[in-house]
């Protein structure tokens, strides 16, 4: 089932849209504002986000920018009455994939969702990666080896995916920390080393897989 993270601060509209999407076969997690959605993002593990722009606490544009720092592939649809050219341009530049103008019919929203999911790189290519004898399901954040399944955290899954998608290339430590921990002032280079050690342990049953520390630069994943 497709998981939708739906962010809307108008209670009556949110109830109608969430119920309608559920009736169309989607699973919906509703949040009342951008900050609430950001806090629940890693738990909700959405396949797509449907986001109102004008909200209290954190608006939809700010939310999209923060989500893009953690996930570059997740489809994002903005729901908004703000359809001036500068607003539309800003939304796309911040990482939005589509705009639906308020008021809208639920049928239009469903078609937009289905279209984005059908063409989403995350759905087409990002779900399962073969890493040596392992399979990484980056949507479910699962690492599978033969009949064993290990549940990964969001950041573990995304970090392993990034390392594999750029295998045989060195990824700078600063790039990794900026992509996944830019807002965590307590996360240090030593913390990143711990994450890498943990991922190495997860992959230890296939000796062909190596994550090499290039001293003073970053990390490189190789599969012999």
Automatic annotation (TrEMBL):
The modification 4-aspartylphosphate is found at residue 52. GO terms for cellular component: cytosol; protein-DNA complex. One of its GO terms (molecular function) is transcription cis-regulatory region binding. Residues 126-223 bind DNA. SUPFAM superfamilies: C-terminal effector domain of the bipartite response regulators, CheY-like. Keywords: DNA-binding, Phosphoprotein, Two-component regulatory system. GO terms for biological process: regulation of DNA-templated transcription. The keyword Cytoplasm does not apply. Pfam families: Response_reg (PF00072), Trans_reg_C (PF00486). It comes from the Bacteria. The keyword DNA-binding applies. Residues 126-223 form the OmpR/PhoB-type domain. Residues 3-117 form the Response regulatory domain. This is DNA-binding response OmpR family regulator. It comes from Sphingobacterium detergens.
